[in-house]
Amino acid sequence: MTKFIIRRVIQALPVIWLITVVSFLLMQQAPGGPQAVFNQNPHITPEQVDAWLQRWCLVRNADILQTIQEYLGWLGVYNCTGGGFLSSQGLPNFLPAFLGGGTNGVIHGDFGFSISSGQPVLSLIAQRLPATAILMGTAWILWVVIATLAGVLAAVKRYSLIDQVITILSYVFYSLPTFWLGLILIFIFGVELRLFPAQGIINVRTSPAPFGTDAYWHALFANPWPQLVDIGQHLVLPVTTLIAVSVAGDSRFVRSAMLESLSQDYVRTARAKGLPGRTVIFRHAFRNALLPIVTNIALEIAFLFGGAIATETVFSYPGMGLLFYDGVNERDYFLLMGILLIASLFIVFMNLVADVLYVMVDPRIKYD
Amino acid sequence: MALPDMQSPSALQLGGPGDGAGTEDVEVALESLSQWQLAWRRFKLHRLAAVGLCIFGFMVLMAIFGPILDPYDPIFIPNAHVPGGDPPSLAHLFGTDDVGRDVFAMVVNGARISVTIGVFSMLIAGIVGVLVGAVAGYVGGLVDNVLMRIVDVFFAIPFLFVILVASRFFGQGQLIPLILIFGLLSWPLISRLVRAMFLSLREADFVEAARAVGVSDFRITFRHILPSALGPVIVAMTLIMASNIVLEAFVSFLGFGLTEDQTSWGNALSNAQTVLSQGNWWWAFFPGMAIALTVLAINFIGDGLRDALDPRSRL
Amino acid sequence: MSEPGVPPPEDVLLEVRGLRTEFRVLDGIVPAVDGVDFSLRRGETLGLVGESGSGKSVTSLSIMRLIERPGAIVGGEIWFEGRDLLKLSEGDMEDIRGNEITMIFQEPMTSLNPVFTVGEQIAESVRLHRHASKKDAWDRAIEMLKLVGIPSPERRVKQYPHEMSGGMRQRVVIAMALACDPKLIIADEPTTALDVTIQAQILELMKRIQAESGAAMLLITHDLAVVAETVQRIAVMYAGKIVESGAVEETLLHPQHPYTEGLLTSIPSRVARGQRLNVIKGTVPNPFRLPKGCKFEPRCPYSFEPCKDNDPPLESIGNDRKVRCWLHGLPEHALPVTVAAGTTPGGAS
Fold first, then answer.
1. What is the pLDDT of residues B76-108, one digit of tens each?
2. Is the entire prediction scored with pTM above 0.90?
3. Tag placement on chain A: N or C end, fewer CB within 10 Å?
4. CA–CA distance, C151 with C162 (Å, rounded to integer)
5. Closest Cα partner for A309 from A250, A231, A241?
6. Phi and psi dihedrals of C97, rounded to 5?
7. Are A183 and B272 in contact (CB < 8 Å)?
8. What interface predicted TM-score (ipTM) does this complex get?
9. B8, B142, B169: which to substitute to probe chain A, counting the most A Cβ within 10 Å?
């Protein structure tokens, strides 16, 4: 198993490298370029600009060679402050800092700084991570549970009224644009009925401190219930919005995987053994339907990221999606590259998890 | 494409119409129709697909003729209007917005841009996807490896993130750059499908047979393998069209898409967020419903096509 | 055959009366099994023979009550051990399935669940029906693997189906069917999917095991050679009906129904070298457009007037033999000249 995982990680390396290239080129080729944004920002002094430009090999009207240097500098292989591929200690720059390598670039954990706020990208992301993790984690669990239950139910009760209701609902929800569903939910439940809050993650008037600050976490641990209830109320509409489309699509997927499995000969064998219907469905049919479902669940995490942008922008939910939206608005290149890279790495990691899970649930697949 | 086992009871229940005697003869009768005739026959019997085709046809007609027939110019601003817009009335079926524009006119005119983006980005994605997939599957080796790693990258980067960045930075608020962006970013799904079909069909009996009688590899690719891969590709293309129509709406809603003077469904929604909190639901409701209905129709058609083009499914 | 609703005599293990199973599909109703009657005594082996689509597999699944939508059993009685299976609750039926009546399926490659070891799959029914402990059920699984001739069963029992060959898997399926000492084994084309050499081994195994266990066996096959070697009695099915039944030797040597005769003369080895192989003309009738009279009439070389409009009944012709043919059911003067002149199918062979 260890060997299998190592092999998969090695296979993922070229993809990860290509992701860095794509992220970089997307930003580098953008009209204007980072320098243009610097010039527009009154909070940044010319000295700061010069220091940053030097640290990241940024030059005006870069030619191909300078572009490559820029990329290698962002990656952390190249030392922009003199020394080329060698660090200030004369060793290869890509080595970790404690082995005498450089400190710049993403491989050394330096994702640069946000051009609009001047803060390091990584700390901006770290501030937004808890909110997104709460939103996506809750959504993911509910999504998997609801989609699986609905899909299995529809498959087992095929052609019945309940199957048709589930089918129609999933068609309808699958066709709704996520952001528009969010808008409509805000209008119905937030504005008209006033059942649930429609903005943010906490109630800023009653909360002891702004979300994500140290003071907030202290208050949360000191007296969790009011804060958790507050977050919970704020999650209802965004989570519903975020999972509606995925649940609809996946319940169809689970249904067909389950129908496929139910139609197999071994299910008939299980029934011929005299096993009760429930055992046949869950022990024999569902166990096999699980193979495609497990892979699908892990892979569609990528889909959640997209949904998170739509949801967070509509609900002004302070997560990474909103951060990314702001970044696009401000043309905040380092921030965008950082988020793209981290989100992509997470997806690559989830693909790996899917592969490993698949091998674990299917005895027919060898992982050597 | 093996015939199903005729011993099993399921073969009996699947035995279809036809003048032959017995299930096996029905098989023979069905096989003698061409693959496409059969698919068309199955598609016509698919009720949801028929509904979808009607709705989508209506949207296309609206996109072509709607602006001509509609009495209101979507950007013409009449003098009389109330702040926040009028609710739906006989004069303005879908109401008006805060500057007095007719929402119905916006929906009708928006169909033109949204459908155009959906159809053309789908075609670009289809062409590029089939080409890349065919080259990867046909040439194999290093070329295949490189192309598929690129496809992997597309699947690893959150699609919406890239669409947002690309639309904002390269879209210039214009239709054609946006179509190119949506098309050129959504082909990888198709090329993965086409390549997978190549790999599985390369060993298929009918390809082996063609090779055995001396048909060239090039001809096998274009006469035998690609037509077989077409079914899943067409289904995937309908999915891409639906998803790109939604994405365009979202991108324009965020203000990264078309400029304000071009009416797409997304642009019609761009002020919806602020407006909804004032209770003027009709602004957001009707353009959104237009998107949802179109996507629903395309999904119905896609489902119908999937069932119709799947050689294993029979009616 | 007894009156409806009255159980058959004690020595009859299984009696199927007027069984009708239909499939409701888009284009109408397919009567896959259309009034089938037969019976099976304790310890007896009966071969149910017919072409593809004749309804023999549906008959076997009907006995197990494993017919799924869009199919349904719409009429008849299935007496087993003094009880009508069609009147039992689903729960009572589950107690019989895999316990008193077990089934061996055609496709060993797909009839075992790929995600469980063969041991788990055999032990599952032992635990269910014998209420055995995990350990005892596992030991029973090893014992059964040994019984069906699988070498080193202690190792094999922990393997997954994909680690075994087709013949091996079919042995596992047989072991599964035998694990609870059934009274009736239904084998649906058990050797069709196997290589010829493996076929002979599996048939030999089934014969041995049937003899040792004393269970009755219903063997469903399209292969007359398999039947001739394995069973005591035979029933021939055509278009959802039994057309002829009797002791295997009698029936195969002196077939009384034109269809049985046609099946026999279409076996290559029975025809002298150089002679034209006799093939039954036409094909199985379209289930949506069954002939009005005898279902075999359009293909029958002996067809005459009464056959076109009236379906003949299954008549006893003595010697424990039954046949569904007007050649045996009409008074002498109604028969056409050629038949009356002594060229009945039986006489012809």
1. 555 455 566 666 766 666 777 766 677 787 888
2. no
3. C
4. 17
5. A241
6. -60, 135
7. yes
8. 0.84
9. B169
